[in-house]
Design goal:
Strand content: 5-15%
Shape: elongated
Oligomer: single chain
Helix content: 40-55%
Distance between the termini: 30 Å
C-alpha cells in the first residue's frame, strides 16, 4: 500500500518518494516550458514546412481555456479540420509554434478568439499551398492532433499525491481538504511543492501519532481562498514571462 511505502527513507519521512515526486515536477516544468506553443509568423511557418521541420500540424479555430483546469492544464486548440484561424505545428525537436492567419489579427492579442472571416485569407492559402507542395515532394508533414506530454505528467503527480493525502496520516497544518484545494489549483504545482516541504508525512515537524484536532488545523475553505488568491497573483506574474501561454 502507498501508506506503508512512502514512510521509508531518511528520517522516516518518505525520502525516496518525495525526491521522486519533486523530480517528476521538475520534468513537468521542462516539458511544459519546452513544448508550450509559441507565436510565430506565416513566413516562419512556410520556411519550416519547406525545410522539412514540421513533424505534425493542425488547424484550429481558436485556443480555449479548459472548462475544469488544474495546475498542469494547458490551453486547448479547438480543431477545425483544414480550416481555421490558427495554424499550429510541431518541430521534430518537440517545440510547438502557431501562426494566426485570420485577417486583422495581431500575433500578440489573438490567443482566445473566434471569427469566421479567416478561411480564405491570403496567409491561410499560402500555408495550405506550402503544405501541399511539401506533401507532394516528401510525403510530409502529417496532419494530426498535437498532444502534449506535460499535462499527463502533472496528472500522474496529482494522482499519487492525492492517494497519499487521502490514505496517509492526517496532515497537521491544514485539513485534507485544505491541501486538496492548494495542491490542485495553485498554479505551476507550487501548492503541491508546499505540501511536500511543510506537511506530514514529509516534514519532521508533523510527527503527531494520532489524528490532529480539526479545530487546530486550517479548514478547507481557507485552502480554497488561498488557492484562488495564489492563482490570481501567480497568473498576473506569469503574464510577464514571455512564452508562458497560460500554462499552470
Amino acid at each position: 500500500m502507498i501508506c506503508t511505502g512512502y514512510r521509508r527513507g531518511p528520517g522516516g519521512h518518505g525520502g525516496p518518494l518525495r525526491v521522486a515526486l519533486v523530480g517528476a515536477w521538475c520534468v513537468w516544468v521542462v516539458l511544459a516550458w519546452w513544448s508550450a506553443p509559441r507565436p510565430a509568423d506565416v513566413e516562419r511557418a512556410r520556411a519550416d514546412i519547406a525545410a522539412g521541420k514540421v513533424a505534425v500540424y493542425e488547424w484550429g479555430e481558436s485556443w480555449e481555456r479548459p472548462t475544469v483546469s488544474s495546475w498542469g492544464s494547458m490551453p486547448l486548440l479547438r480543431s477545425s479540420g483544414d480550416d481555421g484561424a490558427v495554424f499550429v505545428w510541431r518541430n521534430p525537436d518537440g517545440r510547438t509554434r502557431y501562426a494566426v492567419v485570420g485577417d486583422g489579427y495581431a500575433q500578440s492579442d489573438q490567443l482566445f478568439f473566434d471569427d469566421e472571416d479567416h478561411r480564405s485569407s491570403p496567409a491561410a492559402e499560402a500555408i495550405r499551398a506550402a503544405v501541399r507542395s511539401s506533401v507532394l515532394a516528401t510525403g510530409g508533414p502529417n496532419a494530426g492532433d498535437l498532444l502534449f506530454a506535460a499535462p499527463y505528467v502533472a496528472m500522474v503527480i496529482g494522482l499519487v499525491c492525492l492517494a497519499i493525502l487521502a490514505a496517509g496520516p492526517a496532515p497537521v497544518i491544514g485539513t485534507r481538504w485544505y491541501w486538496f484545494w492548494i495542491g490542485t489549483f495553485v498554479p505551476f504545482g507550487l501548492g503541491t511543492l508546499a505540501w511536500l516541504v511543510l506537511e506530514r508525512p514529509w516534514s519532521g515537524r508533523a510527527a503527531a501519532p494520532s489524528e490532529p484536532s480539526v479545530e487546530k488545523r486550517k479548514r478547507g475553505y481557507v485552502g480554497f481562498l488561498v488557492a484562488v488568491g495564489a492563482a490570481i497573483v501567480v497568473g498576473l506574474l506569469a503574464d510577464l514571462v514571455p512564452g508562458g501561454f497560460g500554462i499552470g
